[in-house]
Design goal:
- This protein is of the alpha/beta class.
- 39% of the residues lie in helices and 15% in strands.
- It has ten helices and eight strands.
- It has an eight-stranded parallel β-barrel, surrounded by seven helices.
- The structure holds 2-phosphoglycolic acid (PGA).
Length: 251
């Protein structure tokens, strides 16, 4: 079984006062190396300070997107080396809110992920279908297309994947265990075909309304190697409850 990764995505939430939550999460984690990995992807403005607060604990800090170029005339963007220097170990790429709100295509997502790897970061590459795509039976085809494009030029042990059905993000609607199992098995099969044996150990996270009430049901599903958590990662108690649900599976 892969070591699980419990990752929070704070999105555009968090001011300095919320660094208290980072401290609470960092001090609430189990210290053993067998315990799940824990990560908080915070806004870029909080990254350096969050990394400082988490330093010496088991908590990693990450960014939420990065530009595909190292530097240059890209007003408002943040590069992977900047995130790395600020203390990030990971960066989310291709979140659906970036794909839909900022026109990020599979090609762009792959370029961002390669930039992340080049800077020494682990990209968490997100894929997922819309409700219309699911209703019309196109889910696996959509996922296959996103994987094919978004993984271009990447080595198997350099990235993490996250399956996040768009209709489950921030809606309180959770995919059923059967839906999650089907898509995660499909992604695993894709990874094995593409990369051979190393494809077996690429982490595949589930994201979409994961919370303390459903974590114990979702995290044990085959090929679910952790979670990407939005809303519930904003409260230390909720994040730690999900983390503890993952930790309970490894003992
Ligand atoms: P949610 O967000 O947990 O609030 O549904 C998940 C995500 O967008 O990563």
């Amino acid at each position: 079984m892969n070591r699980k990764l419990i990752a929070g995505n704070w999105k555009m939430n968090g001011l300095r006062v919320d660094l208290q939550t980072v401290r609470e999460i960092a001090t609430g984690l189990a210290a053993s190396t067998a315990a799940p990995e824990a990560l908080l992807c915070v806004p870029a403005t909080l990254l350096a300070e969050a990394a400082r607060q988490a330093s010496g604990t088991a908590l990693c800090i990450g960014g939420q997107t990065c530009h595909s170029q190292e530097k240059g005339a890209y007003t408002g963007d943040v590069s992977a080396p900047m995130l790395k220097e600020a203390g990030a170990g990971f960066v989310i790429t291709g979140h659906s809110e970036r794909r839909t709100g900022h026109g990020e295509t599979d090609e762009i997502v792959a370029a961002q992920a390669r930039a992340a790897v080049n800077a020494g970061l682990t990209p968490i590459i997100c894929v997922g279908e819309t409700l219309d795509e699911r209703s019309s039976g196109a889910t696996l085809k959509v996922i296959e297309g996103q994987l094919t494009g978004s993984l271009d030029g990447l080595e198997p042990n350099s990235f993490v994947l996250a399956y996040e059905p768009l209709w489950a993000i921030g809606t309180g609607k959770v995919a059923t265990p059967a839906q999650i199992a089907e898509v995660h098995a499909f992604i695993r099969q894709f990874l094995e075909q593409r990369f051979g044996k190393p494809g077996q150990t690429v982490k595949i996270l589930y994201g979409g309304s994961l919370n303390p009430g459903n974590a114990a049901e979702i995290l044990p599903i085959s090929n679910v190697d952790g979670g990407l958590i939005g809303g519930a990662s904003l409260k230390a108690g909720d994040f730690l409850a999900i983390y503890n649900a993952a930790a309970a599976l490894t003992v």
